[in-house]
Design brief:
By secondary structure, the protein is α+β, with helices and mostly antiparallel strands. Helix content is 24%, strand content 11%. It has a domain of 115 residues. The protein has six helices and five strands, in the order ααβαβααβββα. It comes from Biston betularia.
Amino acid sequence: HVKLLVRQFLRRANTTSQPWFLYVGFHDPHRCGHTQPQYGAFCERFGSGEPGMGSIPDWQPWYYQWDEVQLPYHIQDTEPARRDVAAQYTTMSRLDQGVALVLKEIEMAGHADDTLIIYTSDNGIPFPSGRTNLYDPGMREPLIVVSPDPKARRNEASGAMVSLLDIMPTMLDWYNVSTPDKEMTNDIRFWDNDNPKSFLPVLEKEPTPSADDAVFASQTHHEVTMYFPMRAVRTRKYKLIHNLNYGMPFPVDQDLYVSPTFQ
């Protein structure tokens, strides 16, 4: 169980004065209907307490009516697609409750007031034009940051342009570790032009928007058989996607291909 593993880690961390880093990954809300169809398209029935589904003690399932869910703009308005989205929303609620358990463990270990918490995802929504694409639905990921710094803003949404590339320099900044010198890196360009950079300053003050604001993205293969290299740059006004091998057929991920939405 994730919460027990987190508890075990924090107990070890409390035996030393050294700073620690904990990465917790959840399967939710990934698809799993292509490998475990008995649990539903997103394994939304797994652990629900239904006959044959097992039970997750800390999870109270939330269900959504397929004809009432709000659809993202890029998903077709059909009953199969709506049922697909409703199933994912159920697993999102399971994820939400799982994150709450992790936060509770951090609090119980006495680290609620000295831990920087970053919540995000690894890719966009697994629907058409989403994951494995560099269209906006494929790049949009949640980013919630909670800082114990008393100077940090609370309960505010930011318009700062950041990407997951910024997490590493942010963590180095948090630990007061200097970023590598250019001559020490394999790719000197990685540290040029302040990109990526720490977003800790954003937690204290909203940056002034600039025409030079930009984030970068890349996609090469989601699976070893899904090679289709793409690169993208997004500014506040424009976006450019460069398909490096545009003449080849675009590969569709297996779990998306067999999904109710795609079929």
